[in-house]
Amino acid sequence: MFHKLIPLSFLLLLFASCSNNTSLPKEGEPVLFAEHIAPIIHANCSKCHNSQGAAPFQLITYKDVASKSKLVAYVTSNRIMPPWPADPEYTHFANETYLTNEQISLLNRWVNEGCLPGDTASLETPTILEKKWQSSEPDLIVRMQKPIRVPGNNTDLFMVVKIPFELPKDTFIRAIEFVPGNKRLVHHVNAHIIQFEPSKKSNLFDGNFLVNQDQTKSTTIHKELNLLNDDGSYAPMTPSVCNYLPGAQFSFYPKEIGGYKIGRKNAFYLNDMHFGPSAVDEIDSSYFKIYFGSEPPKRPVSEFQIGTLGLVPVEPKLEVKANEVKTFHITFPVPQDISILTLVPHMHLIGKSFWAYAIKPSGDTIRLIRINNWDFRWQYFYQPKTLLKIPRGSVIYVEGVYDNRAENPNNPFSPPRVIAERNGSMKTTDEMFQLIVTYIPWKKGDEAISME
Do both 295 and 236 map to the same domain? Predict the structure, then answer.
């Protein structure tokens, strides 16, 4: 069986996805915003481009989109946006966010024909649309005790954070959503829940609520954050209840999959909260949304991680010399039948491409994911359209290419210098190579369970 591991999980979406369901004008008729362009924009782009979204400007009304029409045409034609790193010609995923050539042509034609409005009076109002794009109302919001201050010193900041909370009774949790307060700075978060027996923990809120990960020994973190029971023993921890990465979008798993049983006294334990470099002092007030369940979890979710900090290492050792392009591999035999829920590829700045697949005992290939042009800014939790079975005895192969040349615009150093995996360092200027897999033990019929 697998051991549960802590996965590595900056949401600054400029353009969101566009649906592949496109309404086309009849022959000889012009392209109109209301009839042809709005469905694309509203289906996906506006999910982030609204008054509550992460994007820097709104794209909902005709006026919104027409005023940005040349920009929209440019970034879509050059496939800068929407940001969907995975190669759609290799594997398809649930809720894919890429534009077809047909959609790009339609957008350009609309711009070239003068951005005609069409029957905009028939469109839903921004208020109605925004309600559709918002996630479900949570049952509980758990906030930090105080904002986190991020110094403007242009260096990465790694914190360990405690966010305690109490409930009136034991209950079940269906899902947990992390909401970054400062979307520009929060890079990744790994969150766990520590559960305390009421008789063994008198006060959850004593102690520090955060410590600097780089300056604190792991053996003292629990003491400084007051995460031990009153007698000094460790309380049980449920790992990886919620994780966050650049580009991450919250979604519920299918019914009966995932969830947790939880007691009255608890604390979110963020053992790794990473803030990217900032030139000015800033603050962050991230929080969690909790969605309760009505029944115990029937199929708990597990995770494993391969490569850096994982079950199997990167081969050869992850080190790229200055002005070198180098390929690395991860090989992992799957010890049981599993159904994959989520794939999370991870590299840092000089990552060039990422390719993962599995070979079944029969010799057949299961395509997992291929990213031809890795972009550190856009990292996703990729979910297959239906649960994906990987049989016991299959071998997962991962290939990563790294480009440490001066010509690489993402190279953090000029001139280039040696970049390597350094004792599990998560600094963006060091490197990592990982595949994180969320799964459940396979059951007959899993392949028919939709993830969309």
Answer: yes
